[in-house]
Specification:
Layout lengths: L6 H9 L4 E10 L5 E9 L6 H9 L10 E5 L12 H7 L1
Parallel strand pairs: 2-3
Antiparallel strand pairs: 1-2
């Protein structure tokens, strides 16, 4: 649609929340024309939910940059170099 999505900006806002330890935002294609954003999070709080995070993000981001899903992981899969393995995360969502 010609809209620019800055994944790093979304990740930076989410990690500014004290309840979130780490965050990775992924683009998930559900069909050829439909994409959705998924936020993968690690958190110390078991009660963290999308209902809390969406209003927080709406204060700073346009609607098209708000992730459709928020998935909490205990830890992220890592590559041999110690970076988050985004391909492996895509297979888990």
């Amino acid at each position: 649609r010609g809209l620019r999505i800055e994944l790093g900006e979304i990740e930076a806002l989410l990690t500014s929340n004290p309840a979130i330890n780490d965050c990775v935002v992924l683009v998930k294609k559900t069909s050829e024309t439909v994409i959705s954003l998924t936020a993968c999070l690690t958190s110390n709080e078991a009660e963290l939910s999308a209902k809390e995070l969406k209003p927080f993000l709406k204060e700073y981001l346009p609607d098209y940059m708000i992730p459709a899903e928020f998935i909490i992981f205990p830890t992220f899969p890592l590559t041999p170099n110690g970076k988050v393995d985004r391909k492996e995360l895509l297979t888990r969502i």
